[in-house]
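The pair is quoted verbatim below.
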Amino acid sequence: MALMITDECINCDVCEPECPNNAIYQGIHIYEINPQLCTECVGHFDRPQCQEVCPVDCISLHPEYKESKEDLMLKYHHLQKDKVN
């Protein structure tokens, strides 16, 4: 599953630089995560780095983007391939 940032976000700016896929960006009111780029850090780290650093625990699984670890790994490989091209 991709992750999402909930309304509890305090815009502390710590999650955005931790994302290896550049999936996190400043939205209109709070930070947001592009589900097409989020791999939950699969391929990079054992745990999602944004969740590790979030001081208010406002990053959860996105219910509309259900993906297995295998799906996330395929997405990771696709994103890596796009970086090379």
Summary: Strands lie at 3-5, 24-26, 31-33, 59-61. The chain has one domain: 3-84. Residues 6 and 58 are 5 Å apart (CA to CA). The mean pLDDT is 95.
